[in-house]
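Hi W., the adenosine-3'-5'-diphosphate complex you wanted:
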Amino acid sequence: EEEYLEETQHNFNEKLQTLPRERGWFGHLFRYQDCWLDTFSLKGCMLVQNHFRARPTDIILGSSMKTGTTWLRTLVFTTMNRFLYDFSSHPLLNTGPHSCFPCIDTYSMGEIGIKDLEALPSPWLLATHFPYTLLPEAVTASGSKFVYIWRDPKDVLVSMWQFVNKINPKEIPPIGLNEAFELFCKGISNFGPFWDHVLGYWKVCQETPNKMLFLKYEDMKREPLVELKKLADFMGHPFTMEEEKDGVVEKIVEFCSFEHLSNLEVNKTGSHQINRDTAIENRHFFRKGQIGESKIHLTSEMMDCIDRITQHKFNGSGLI
Ligand code: A3P
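Structure:
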């Protein structure tokens, strides 16, 4: 394990010198294979590309940051493990939503090592923020299933801007909304451009619908029961008639709701260790959890501008 980490570190140091860089949201961002990554994710990406193999039974949750990853994680985990845990003694009552299964972007970099990952029982539930195009064949051709979530980019921008200013260390001056807006529109955001991220997964979903389920935050907010049933079907664990009659779908939706999870002690005071040096307080993953809250923060010019980019980028894709 030590050896491949050293090799990656060496390649990473060399690569870093050659990549275009921009001032980003949490420090610098580097353009690697058409995607903007911070140094931490860049190293993680190189590790994944060179050393990670997924298994055909894996379920991989793909998303850009701030699109509803936390929520989807809890829904996937709770649905897949519904025969294992009772709601009164459920692991999510005491474990933050990001600690219930690993994110491959950070694996072997402190959160969890390759050996730990390989030791997990099948099927693996995994998450990633990497664009589909950055994932190696050992993942994309593994037979794993993907669940992708996306969200109105205006809400993504505001959620991201607020998140960054909460988690960045105090000595880093806060990023202003105008600056955040400009960077986001130029595609310079972690794992961005945001629109390309969505389109990359969408293309695969259209070509191989059995392999990818596309979910939208807004649809999940409006019709959580319908979307959760879709998710369970897709993951190969559909709800039985009996479960539906017993209200299991409603119970999972309620258990994973913003109101329930954000009020748990573990999510008010606990934190999630992403690597040896960095922990994020769980409460920062829960802010408002609403649709369209960005209109309170963005000017109408800003909103129009983002909508125009979305129209332009997604035109003809069937996404809008
Ligand atoms: P807001 O900042 O708009 O409130 P991610 O999990 O990908 O980081 O996304 C975070 C966004 O999802 C935040 O949006 C957060 O409040 C919202 N969120 C977190 N848990 C949620 C839940 N259980 N239901 C709905 N939204 C949730």
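The pocket of adenosine-3'-5'-diphosphate is lined by residues 63, 65-71, 155, 159, 162, 256-258, 261, 285-289, 293 (CB under 6 Å).

W.
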